[in-house]
Amino acid sequence: MSSALKIGVAGLGTVGVGVIKVLTENAYTISARAGREIRVTAVSARDRSKARGVVLDGLTWYDNAMDLAADDNVDVVVELIGGSDGIAKNLVEAVLASSTHVVTANKALIAHHGLNLARSAEEAGASLAYEAAVAGGIPIIKALREGLAANTIQGVHGILNGTCNYILSSMTDSGRSFDAVLAEATDLGYAELDPSFDVDGIDAAHKLAILASVAFGTEVDFDSVYVEGIRHVSPVDIHFARELGYGIKLLGVAKRRKDGIEQRVHPCMVPVDAPINHVSGVFNGIVVDGDFVDATIYEGRGAGEGPTASAVIADIIDIARNSQVPTFGVATADLKPSRTVPMSDHVGPYYVRLTVIDKPGVFADVAACLKSNNVSMGSVLQHSRDPGEPVAVVLTLHETEERAMVMTLTEIEALELVVEPPVMIRIEEFH
Ligand code: HSE
Fold it and tell me: Is residue 161 lining ligand 1, measured as CB closer than 6 Å?
């Protein structure tokens, strides 16, 4: 066997502890697969005295993670600090500058700075590996970059945030409101105390930007991702969705088009029998369409100690095997600009819920707005209420351009008998 591969772990939270545990418990299997021993030699975390349930005796301890970059007894630095900037970015830059390999679970860092970091890694001849940054334990980066390398990827649809999927699944099962389920998710420790990165779609958008780059061979372009979270999804829309044959999921969608790529994260109605609609609770699920392989589906845990450590260690094993592939699947010089299509150019079917006063003529007024924007209706649903009372009217619209949809909704909202802002949810049909 070759000499041991020496690992420095920056950050001893849930994932850092998980990495040490899995490396210890599966040491034999891992070293057999890696062809050499993998040994943690150094760690960095803020609090030395904290009980973590793993043995840290004999490891070099750094209070300042930056010191890992200068440790000659470290071949790979595993960055588990998090955040797109600050110490995590400084550390990764310093480690790559010293031609040492980096493994990270940091989606924000890769989404914001992936291109420059990949260039640095290339110049240094080092690996920048980030399997754990997207969908936790699901090996989706490897699947896209290596397993599906023969294909032109047409599209990626993903449930990329377990917190949102838990909330939407629980709202669907129980009929409770977003706020009630979020409060419960926070109590159970599924949601962060500040849940905005999750529920506002940012976390999913970080992951989508990375997937789009690997799928299409384009520069990572987080700033071009259209992002809408799940705060406005209500039990009434979940109820109507079910009546129409749909479930509601927060999806990250990256699609190839003739004029560029779509990159968007927003709540979607998906057919109840679509495989992705069966990915529930905290699980993540991703559908990748390739031109020759057709649809491939991946499901698993998108977060947590074991699944994320599993992905981190898969990257470490690649490095131990001297298996190096371009960070985003092609050399950085060959990555193309992303040319993201603006959301106003999106074309698809839509669900719209209006709250109207149930009086003669209201529907004719709504229909006139559809007609003036050349928007074609697929179905309409209204449950009876007392005349003169507000009532929900649900429309589905055939494929239409988002800009026409926005103009239509602006006109509808201005109608006298429409008493609340319309609710619009995009439909993703998966065909
Ligand atoms: N907060 C993420 C989620 C996990 O809820 O899926 C880490 O990316």
Answer: yes
Q: Whose Cα sits closest to atom 7 in ligand 1?
A: 303
Boundaries of domain holding 245: 140-300+335-343
Nearest residue by C-alpha to atom 2 in ligand 1:
161
CB burial of residue 84 (10 Å; 0-12, 13-18, 19+): middle
* Range of lowest pLDDT (38-52, 256-270, 290-304): 38-52
CATH number, domain at 421? 3.30.70.260
How many other C-beta atoms are found inside a 10 Å radius of the C-beta of residue 235?
A: 16
Length, in residues, of the chain: 431
CATH of the domain at 43: 3.40.50.720
For residue 32, with 0-12 CB atoms within 10 Å meaning exposed, 13-18 middle and 19 or more buried, which class applies?
exposed
pTM above 0.90, yes or no: yes
Q: Are 227 and 381 in contact (CB under 8 A)?
A: no
Q: Is the CB of 252 under 6 A from ligand 1?
A: no
Decide if pLDDT at 244 tops 70. yes
Same domain, 181 and 259: yes
Handedness of CA 92, 11, 219, 213 (dihedral sign): positive
Specify the pLDDT at position 393.
94
Q: Which of 109, 141, 161, 312 to probe ligand 1 with, by most ligand atoms within 8 A of CB? A: 161
Ligand 1 pocket member 158 (CB < 6 A)? no
Q: Has 207 been annotated as catalytic?
A: yes
In the numeric block, which tokens belong to residue 65? 């993670």
| Atom 4 (ligand 1) nearest CA | 303
Region at 422 (left for phi over 0; alpha for psi -120 to 50; beta for the rest):
beta
